[in-house]
Write a structure and sequence with these properties.
Elements: H1 2-16, H2 24-41, H3 46-65, H4 71-77, H5 81-90, H6 96-104, E1 106-107, E2 114-115, H7 118-128, H8 133-144, H9 149-169, H10 175-182, H11 195-204, H12 208-215, H13 226-241, H14 243-262, H15 268-306
Antiparallel strand pairs: 1-2
Helix pairs in contact: 1-2, 1-3, 2-3, 2-15, 3-9, 7-14, 8-9, 8-13, 9-13, 9-15, 13-14, 13-15
Length: 310
């Protein structure tokens, strides 16, 4: 019963975080305790594995959104200039996003509205499809290679959670924010378009606002790019279980990286930081494997005690 109580508290904590006086670190700790508690409360099965992943992502979403609960405080801390400076150096004097938008994007010369071509649509949908990629990759591994699933899940969610911790410590603006909000004219960033939102308003019309409110929540969570980082991790994990799935997700990841820069969602340096985060997790995983095994055994012992198994 105690384990179920922790699960319930973990589910509720993100929902009530704005209405209670507890420090954010406390509510986040409770939220991240829920997946562990469920492992104690319920015997191992595919259903439990999926539920544990869902609870982990529920806690992650709160960790992702919480820094933006106080918008003014976050805006005072936001880093804007350094990614612009780095990307201008990488782009040999001009932001890569501006180079791509100038070369590929089109504006109707008569009414001044965006002219959407097939390339634009494909790249926007590649961006939107990201929500399916990390979890779809884990689902594939769970079904086809269940023995590899625990490690794959731990490594994937380590990337999510470590990235979210950076958003708390160093909120960083994406290109469109520097253009639309901060007006960094001295960098030329004011000319960057946020093409994903422009197309979303065009495609979804009145449904765009409610839809975006569900998936948004923290506009200053750009460094590192978890879109790119988790897709790189999915490519690496799938490559271990099959050449074809690994190659498919790798191709998608490259397209996604291009889309994120072209659409004005991320700087190139955000992608490089995301790839570095994944490389960090991948490289250090063997060193943390003994600790992970001890944690697994401890949770298994608690599970056995909870279900009366000797």
């Amino acid at each position: 019963m105690a384990a179920w109580g922790v699960v319930a508290a973990g589910v509720a904590a993100p929902l009530v975080r704005k209405r209670i006086a507890a420090p954010p670190l406390v509510t986040q700790t409770v939220a991240f305790a829920a997946p562990v508690a469920l492992c104690v409360a319920v015997r191992r099965s595919r259903t439990r594995d999926v539920a544990v992943c869902a609870l982990q992502m529920w806690a992650y979403l709160a960790a992702y959104k919480t820094p933006h609960d106080d918008e003014q405080a976050q805006a005072r801390r936001v880093h804007i200039d350094y990614p612009i400076d780095i990307d201008r150096a990488l782009g040999l004097g001009e932001l890569p996003t501006l180079r791509l938008q100038s070369a590929l994007a089109r504006i109707d010369p008569i009414d001044g509205r965006p002219s959407w071509r097939t390339l634009d649509r494909v790249l926007v949908w590649a961006h939107w499809a990201w929500f399916l990629v990390p979890h779809g990759s884990l689902a594939y591994i769970l079904v086809r290679h269940p023995e590899k699933f625990p490690r794959a899940a731990v490594m994937t969610y380590a990337v999510f959670d470590l990235g979210a911790s950076v958003y708390w410590v160093a909120p960083t603006a994406p290109p469109w924010y520097a253009a639309a909000v901060a007006g960094r004219e001295d960098h030329g960033a004011q000319d960057v378009r946020r093409m994903m939102v422009e197309y979303g308003e065009h495609f979804w019309r009145d449904g765009w606002g409610p839809l975006y409110s569900v998936f948004g929540g923290n506009p200053l969570a750009a460094m590192p790019s978890l879109h790119f980082a988790t897709s790189v991790m999915a490519s690496l994990l799938l490559a271990e279980v099959g050449i074809l799935p690994g190659a498919l997700v790798c191709a998608y990841t490259l397209a996604l990286g291009f889309a994120l820069v072209y659409l004005g969602e991320h700087y190139v340096v955000d992608l490089l930081a995301g790839a570095a985060l994944t490389g960090f997790v991948w490289r250090l995983a063997p060193y943390f494997a003994p600790l992970a095994e001890r944690v697994r055994r401890g949770v298994a012992t608690l599970e056995s005690m909870a279900h009366g198994v000797a």
